[in-house]
Amino acid sequence: MEASGWSTSLSSGIVLSLVAVVWTMLWNNLQGLQLQQFVSRHLSRHARRLAAIVDPYLTVTIAEYDGGRMKRSDAYKEVQAYLQRATCATGGGVRHLKAETAKDVDALVLSMGDNEEVADAFRGATVWWLAYSTPPREDNAPSYWGGGRAARADRRFYRLFFLERHRDLVLGEYLPHVRREGRAVMVKNRQRKLFTNLSGDGYDADGMWSESVWSHVVFEHPKTFATLAMDPAKKKEVIDDLDAFRKGKDYYARVGKAWKRGYLLYGPPGTGKSTMIAAMANHLDYDVYDIELTSVRTNTDLRKLFIETTSKSIIVIEDIDCSLDLTRARKKKKKANDDGQKNDGDKKDGAEPPDEEKDAGGSKVTLSGVLNFIDGLWSACGGERIIVFTTNHVEKLDPALIRRGRMDKHIEMSYCCFEAFKLLAKVYLDVESHHLFDAVESLLREANMTPADVAENLTPKSVDDDADSCLAELVKELEKAKKKVLAKKEGKGKDVADGADDDDDDE
Prior knowledge:
Elements: H1 2-32, H2 35-54, E1 57-63, E2 65-66, E3 71-72, H3 74-89, E4 97-101, E5 108-112, E6 116-122, E7 125-134, E8 155-163, H4 167-189, E9 193-197, E10 214-218, H5 232-246, H6 249-255, E11 260-266, H7 273-284, E12 287-290, H8 299-307, E13 313-317, H9 320-323, H10 330-343, H11 355-358, H12 367-375, E14 385-391, H13 399-402, E15 409-412, H14 418-429, H15 437-446, H16 451-458, H17 467-506
Keywords: ATP-binding, Magnesium, Membrane, Nucleotide-binding, Transmembrane, Transmembrane helix
InterPro entries: AAA+_ATPase, AAA_N_dom, At3g28540-like_C, ATPase_AAA_core, ATPase_AAA_CS, Mitochondrial_chaperone_BCS1, P-loop_NTPase
Region (Disordered): 333-363, 484-507
């Protein structure tokens, strides 16, 4: 009996051991098959089917920003423009509206506020648009643009609701229709703008946080090529070049170049470089982005500025030689600083720090960063952009900055010529001929006077001033300018002669 019981107990232990081994192997295999996830997916599938019976609506969400807030979504702007028209058409369907200025000074562009809903009909289907926003997470993590997330603006969205049976119609036809119509509304309501970059900390002039890196006003500069004082042949050359660029989308695509063009405007102060930019913008109907390089902290920030510019725009950096150390002398200065640091390695406490240490809190934009801004990989984002540099001292700029391919067209803005004077006389005095014109023409060949100075002398200062008095005043000023030129030449000649005499004395 004892032997039989011991045998039975041994058999039971073996069976249990085998069961444990089999169960362990089976359990490991079941885990490998991710049984829990399989069951979860199966249940979720049935739950969605049940939810579709209870709630037959599908949704499409369109966020304001793409690419981690690097660029405002084109789709969002088009939907917003489309719904501005839909909001006006629905009358009292929306209770809370937002108003913005329109092209007409007495009109307003209306759009629905947050948590408002507007219905739209399309080929027998009714859809609903909801505008809403969500606050940012309140944590201390650094944001993409700088600062804490708690300081950032709300995230804004549009959400489209429609019945599931209209899925193909809405996704295949309605949404493309909305984008096309939205673009048309944007063109109709478009106001050209003059942009300037915000400070590096992301706050505007009022100390308010801004999601955009740009602030703007309406561009209302009246200057056109018709009133620009410039040599007519050179002016026509510039106009033809701009027209060719505007129509050159297919050409740029065919040759494999980004659809952009660089212009370098150089010449003495007062020769019309800024007004040339205004005339270009008015001729092309482009926005203007005026970049203040000294307020751009790093090359990365400069890249962000470019990404947020739109197509059909002119990007301007005025007085490029004064904005940053981008001149030919920068390498010599760096070498001199490096040599100075080596020689003064044991300098005493309290000595003057090098310039780089002084400017540690300022802009760290480099020549390499500017070059990449002009024609690097990121410069191909978008299209139909013109980049303009202005300078009073073109000879100081690094050749790499202004070579062809970066600054494709170099335009010299020189002193006033007789043809430019005649245009100014017509614009300011409404005269096309006068007995003093011959004297002005003769003096302009020998005197250096900018178009701005000529225009100032032609401007009537009182109700008693007429064409005779204004032209006489201009002749008087031109004679003074001629004397200055002659005196300068005589001074240079004297210096040369003195130098020759010194050489003779040395011999």
